[in-house]
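Open question from group meeting: does this chain pack into something compact, or does most of it stay loose? Before anyone orders reagents, we agreed to write out a predicted structure and look at it together. Recording both the input and the output here so the notebook holds the full record.
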Amino acid sequence: MTALIRSTRAELLRLGRWPALWVLAATWLTLNVVFGYVFDYIAYRTGDSAGPNTGVPPRSCWPASSRTPSPRCWCRACRCSAGPS
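C-alpha cells returned:
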C-alpha cells in the first residue's frame, strides 16, 4: 500500500470511532428519508394533490416549438407519458 492509502485508511478508522460522526450520519440519513419519502407518502395517503405545480396549465410544460410534451416533462399537470404517474 502506498502512504496515501494507509494515511486515508487510518483517518477513516479514527473518524469511525467518534460518536459525533455516527450521530451526524444518523441525523443526515433520517432527514433524507423524512423529506424524501415520508412527507410525500403522507400527502399521497391523505389525498393532498396540491404540489408545486398546482394550477399550472398543461400546455406550459410543453416546449413552444412542439405540439407534444417534452421527454423531460416534469409537470404533474400535463399527464404526458414522460411525466410522473
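Observations to bring back to the group:
The chain is about 50% helix and 0% strand.
The mean pLDDT is 75.
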